[in-house]
């Protein structure tokens, strides 16, 4: 992954991410996941979207960066595609387990996963060497993930923390060899009427000179899928399995929303206008 990010800026910008749908290179400090904090996150990314993997959109543009012996990227596309597909499979499998755990048929979330708009981000965190390290240097601001679940790989540097809502303390999520972190996202929370909560988490920036890499795969669902609160209560299981009849009345904490609409809204609120805008504010 370091090979991707060590390319010259001009090269990285040949495949820019331009909107919430497509993938591509995301410049340093593009996002500010903690909207209230309002400071840019100290990371850059490369976002792999469906069109990078299955040519679904029949876009003639090759979204992948050029691979040459000189730039060391030969094999990047193939490896990244393979990773995306495997993560997608794992997400569906875990989705099946979650459905079963909720007393639903294991295929309950299949329609959600069908042609889903998943994004896999390769993330590179780094502190700014020109600046003194600051206590509040944040690699990724406090946030919840947006989709059903996230499958997160992190390297051995550490820095991921989850907020304990009861105490207000942060709990570190140490890197564990051979293990993924699975996050429950906002849409799973909405499906379960808040019974499952999407935990707030953040990433502390590594100290100057240290580089951290992670790969979250976000199961963000089919954009047209209407996410609605599963009807909880005694009749719940029966109603969902039969998919018929009127759902038992429950007090919904969330209104139905299309997965794509939710995702677009969250992306827009977390994205800064452009890295250039912020370059001036952090240069001092
Ligand atoms: O890099 C990490 O460990 C977590 C990243 C994350 O939370 C996110 O991108 O949503
Ligand atoms: Fe996250």
Automatic annotation (TrEMBL):
Keywords carried by this UniProt record: Iron, Metal-binding, Oxidoreductase
* Top-level division of the source organism's lineage: Eukaryota
Where the record annotates domain Fe2OG dioxygenase, the positions are 116-221
Q: Does the keyword section mention Cell inner membrane?
A: no
Signal peptide from the UniProt entry: none
The keyword Ion transport belongs to this UniProt entry's keyword annotation = no
User: Which SUPFAM superfamilies is this protein grouped with?
Assistant: Clavaminate synthase-like
Tell me the protein family, please: Belongs to the iron/ascorbate-dependent oxidoreductase family.
Its name, as the record gives it, is Fe2OG dioxygenase domain-containing protein
* Organism annotation: Paecilomyces lecythidis
């Amino acid at each position: 992954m370091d090979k991707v990010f060590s390319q010259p800026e001009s090269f990285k910008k040949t495949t820019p991410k331009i909107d919430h749908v497509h993938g591509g290179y995301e410049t340093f400090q593009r996002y500010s996941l903690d909207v209230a904090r309002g400071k840019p996150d100290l990371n850059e990314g490369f976002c792999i979207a469906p069109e990078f993997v299955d040519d679904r959109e029949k876009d003639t543009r090759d979204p992948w960066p050029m691979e040459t012996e000189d730039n060391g990227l030969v094999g990047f596309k193939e490896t990244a595609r393979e990773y995306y597909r495997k993560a997608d499979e794992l997400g569906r499998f875990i989705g099946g387990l979650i459905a079963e755990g909720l007393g639903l048929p294991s295929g309950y979330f299949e329609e959600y996963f069908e042609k889903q708009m998943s994004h896999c981000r390769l993330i590179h965190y780094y502190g700014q060497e020109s600046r003194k390290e600051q206590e509040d240097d944040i690699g990724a601001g406090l946030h919840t993930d947006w989709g059903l679940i996230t499958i997160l790989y992190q390297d051995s540097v550490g820095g991921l923390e989850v907020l304990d809502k009861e105490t207000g303390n942060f709990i570190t999520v140490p890197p564990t060899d051979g293990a993924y972190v699975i996050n429950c996202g906002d849409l799973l929370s909405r499906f379960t009427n808040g019974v499952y909560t999407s935990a707030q988490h953040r990433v502390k920036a590594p100290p100057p000179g240290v580089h951290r890499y992670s790969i979250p795969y976000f199961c963000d669902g089919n954009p047209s899928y209407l996410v609605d609160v599963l009807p909880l209560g005694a009749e719940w299981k029966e109603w969902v399995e039969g998919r018929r009849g009127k759902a038992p009345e429950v007090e919904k904490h969330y209104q139905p929303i299309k997965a794509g609409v939710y995702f677009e809204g969250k992306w827009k609120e977390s994205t800064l206008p452009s890295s250039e805008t912020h370059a001036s504010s952090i240069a001092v």
